[in-house]
Amino acid sequence: MRPRSEELLGGATKWLSSARAALSSGFPESATADAYYAALYAARAALSEEDRYAKTHGGVWDLFYLVFVESGRFDEALATDARRTERLRLDAHYEALPIPTDEARHAVDTAERFVAAVERLFLPEVPE
Question: Can you give the pTM of this predicted structure?
Fold first, then answer.
Protein backbone atom coordinates (compact mmCIF):
# COMPACT_ATOMS: atom_id res chain seq x y z
CA MET A 1 0.00 0.00 0.00
CA ARG A 2 1.02 3.60 -0.48
CA PRO A 3 2.29 5.28 2.70
CA ARG A 4 -0.67 7.67 2.86
CA SER A 5 -3.11 4.79 2.36
CA GLU A 6 -1.44 2.90 5.21
CA GLU A 7 -1.74 5.96 7.45
CA LEU A 8 -5.43 6.31 6.65
CA LEU A 9 -6.13 2.61 7.16
CA GLY A 10 -4.23 2.79 10.45
CA GLY A 11 -6.46 5.71 11.40
CA ALA A 12 -9.52 3.64 10.52
CA THR A 13 -8.31 0.89 12.83
CA LYS A 14 -7.79 3.38 15.67
CA TRP A 15 -11.25 4.89 15.19
CA LEU A 16 -12.69 1.38 15.22
CA SER A 17 -10.94 0.55 18.51
CA SER A 18 -12.26 3.78 19.97
CA ALA A 19 -15.79 2.95 18.77
CA ARG A 20 -15.66 -0.47 20.42
CA ALA A 21 -14.39 1.03 23.68
CA ALA A 22 -17.06 3.73 23.69
CA LEU A 23 -19.79 1.19 23.02
CA SER A 24 -18.64 -1.12 25.80
CA SER A 25 -18.38 1.86 28.17
CA GLY A 26 -21.95 2.96 27.56
CA PHE A 27 -21.35 5.91 25.23
CA PRO A 28 -23.43 5.12 22.14
CA GLU A 29 -23.14 8.62 20.65
CA SER A 30 -19.34 8.48 20.76
CA ALA A 31 -19.35 4.91 19.50
CA THR A 32 -21.48 5.91 16.53
CA ALA A 33 -19.31 8.90 15.65
CA ASP A 34 -16.11 6.89 15.94
CA ALA A 35 -17.58 4.07 13.85
CA TYR A 36 -18.44 6.60 11.16
CA TYR A 37 -14.90 7.96 11.14
CA ALA A 38 -13.49 4.43 10.94
CA ALA A 39 -15.49 3.82 7.77
CA LEU A 40 -14.65 7.26 6.36
CA TYR A 41 -10.91 6.75 6.90
CA ALA A 42 -11.11 3.30 5.31
CA ALA A 43 -12.90 4.79 2.30
CA ARG A 44 -10.23 7.48 2.06
CA ALA A 45 -7.50 4.80 2.25
CA ALA A 46 -9.10 2.90 -0.62
CA LEU A 47 -9.34 6.05 -2.71
CA SER A 48 -5.74 6.93 -1.91
CA GLU A 49 -4.67 3.60 -3.38
CA GLU A 50 -6.33 4.72 -6.62
CA ASP A 51 -4.73 8.17 -6.35
CA ARG A 52 -8.18 9.70 -5.92
CA TYR A 53 -9.00 12.29 -3.26
CA ALA A 54 -12.00 14.32 -2.14
CA LYS A 55 -12.21 17.41 0.06
CA THR A 56 -15.50 16.74 1.85
CA HIS A 57 -17.14 13.80 3.58
CA GLY A 58 -19.84 13.70 0.92
CA GLY A 59 -17.20 13.88 -1.76
CA VAL A 60 -15.38 10.89 -0.28
CA TRP A 61 -18.54 8.79 -0.30
CA ASP A 62 -19.58 9.89 -3.79
CA LEU A 63 -16.12 9.14 -5.17
CA PHE A 64 -15.95 5.81 -3.31
CA TYR A 65 -19.24 4.78 -4.94
CA LEU A 66 -18.00 5.85 -8.36
CA VAL A 67 -14.64 4.10 -8.12
CA PHE A 68 -15.49 0.97 -6.14
CA VAL A 69 -19.23 0.29 -6.04
CA GLU A 70 -20.19 1.18 -9.60
CA SER A 71 -17.22 -0.83 -10.89
CA GLY A 72 -18.39 -3.88 -8.94
CA ARG A 73 -15.30 -4.00 -6.74
CA PHE A 74 -17.18 -3.31 -3.49
CA ASP A 75 -20.49 -4.45 -2.05
CA GLU A 76 -23.13 -1.77 -2.56
CA ALA A 77 -25.20 -2.67 0.50
CA LEU A 78 -22.18 -2.44 2.80
CA ALA A 79 -21.08 0.89 1.32
CA THR A 80 -24.60 2.27 1.67
CA ASP A 81 -24.87 1.09 5.27
CA ALA A 82 -21.52 2.66 6.13
CA ARG A 83 -22.51 5.97 4.63
CA ARG A 84 -25.78 5.96 6.59
CA THR A 85 -23.85 6.10 9.86
CA GLU A 86 -23.04 9.71 8.99
CA ARG A 87 -26.66 10.68 9.67
CA LEU A 88 -26.42 9.19 13.16
CA ARG A 89 -23.16 11.00 13.80
CA LEU A 90 -24.69 14.29 12.72
CA ASP A 91 -27.72 13.70 14.93
CA ALA A 92 -25.48 13.03 17.92
CA HIS A 93 -23.03 15.86 17.32
CA TYR A 94 -25.18 18.66 15.98
CA GLU A 95 -28.71 17.88 17.11
CA ALA A 96 -27.73 16.47 20.54
CA LEU A 97 -30.04 13.53 19.92
CA PRO A 98 -29.50 10.34 21.89
CA ILE A 99 -28.45 7.31 19.88
CA PRO A 100 -30.02 4.03 21.00
CA THR A 101 -27.46 1.41 21.96
CA ASP A 102 -28.71 -1.04 19.34
CA GLU A 103 -28.20 1.56 16.59
CA ALA A 104 -24.72 2.31 17.90
CA ARG A 105 -23.92 -1.41 17.95
CA HIS A 106 -25.11 -1.68 14.34
CA ALA A 107 -22.91 1.29 13.37
CA VAL A 108 -19.87 -0.33 14.99
CA ASP A 109 -20.61 -3.69 13.35
CA THR A 110 -20.99 -1.96 9.99
CA ALA A 111 -17.69 -0.12 10.42
CA GLU A 112 -15.94 -3.37 11.35
CA ARG A 113 -17.23 -5.04 8.19
CA PHE A 114 -16.43 -2.00 6.04
CA VAL A 115 -12.85 -1.66 7.29
CA ALA A 116 -12.27 -5.40 6.87
CA ALA A 117 -13.64 -5.29 3.31
CA VAL A 118 -11.32 -2.40 2.40
CA GLU A 119 -8.39 -4.29 3.91
CA ARG A 120 -9.23 -7.31 1.76
CA LEU A 121 -9.23 -5.09 -1.35
CA PHE A 122 -5.63 -4.08 -0.84
CA LEU A 123 -4.16 -6.57 1.62
CA PRO A 124 -4.97 -9.96 0.09
CA GLU A 125 -3.57 -11.84 3.09
CA VAL A 126 -6.43 -10.56 5.30
CA PRO A 127 -8.85 -13.47 5.86
CA GLU A 128 -12.60 -13.12 5.37
Answer: 0.94
